[in-house]
Design goal:
It is a single chain. Helices cover 29% and strands 46% of the residues. The protein is built from 3 helices and 8 strands, in the order E-H-E-E-E-E-E-E-E-H-H. It has helices at residues 21-39, 141-149, 152-173; strands spanning 8-17, 43-48, 59-66, 69-81, 85-90, 97-103, 106-124, 127-137. The protein is globular. It starts with 7 loop residues before the first strand and ends with a helix.
Length: 175
């Protein structure tokens, strides 16, 4: 499955986590929903529906506010490969991410597809390379251009850096 989507922002961040790959992978599956609000400003909710951990076919309710942008996701977990890969997404047009942007007193509603990939690489018995990639698929080219001009791409890129490093901190502090 290609990660290239039309009219998209492709954002990625890689960190080295000082824990074995199995610990990092299992933390994402089981503990991301308990630490989500701690890993970045504006994180409000991350809950796997009807399950205790992320698994294929499950849905994740997620919401966050990043400066003037409120985002609500209903992710579907598409792929989980032990110690290698986790992928969940919202998709246009049937299961979109809902986006509310506030500009002064004006609120602009929009939708997007949000594709989230976690990739894990075992460096050695004590370290894991974790790459988080988010592909934000916009409805059309005009939305992509406007998102670049208004700074939305940079906003989400900076948020991904904060989020990934916050997640690294939480994983490393877990026993």
């Amino acid at each position: 499955m290609t990660r290239k989507k039309p009219n998209s922002f492709y954002l990625t961040e890689t960190v080295i986590v000082n824990k074995p790959v199995n610990n990092v992978f299992n933390f994402i599956l089981k503990d991301l929903q308990t630490c989500y609000t701690k890993i970045a400003k504006g994180h409000e909710k991350f809950k796997v529906k009807n399950a205790e951990k992320i698994s294929e076919g499950k849905f994740i309710e997620c919401s966050e506010t990043i400066k003037n942008v409120k985002v609500s996701h209903r992710y579907e977990v598409k792929k989980v490969i032990k110690n290698k890969h986790i992928y969940f997404c919202t998709e246009l047009p049937n299961n979109p991410t809902k986006v509310l942007m506030q500009f002064g007193k004006k609120i602009v509603e929009n939708v997007s597809g949000s594709h989230v990939y976690y990739d894990f690489k075992d460096i050695n018995s004590k370290q894991t390379q974790m790459t988080v990639t988010i592909v934000i698929q916009l409805p059309n080219l005009l939305n992509k251009i406007m998102g670049t001009i208004t700074g939305s791409k940079k906003l989400f890129s900076n948020h991904l850096i904060e989020e990934t490093n916050g997640l690294k901190r939480e994983i490393e502090s877990a026993s």
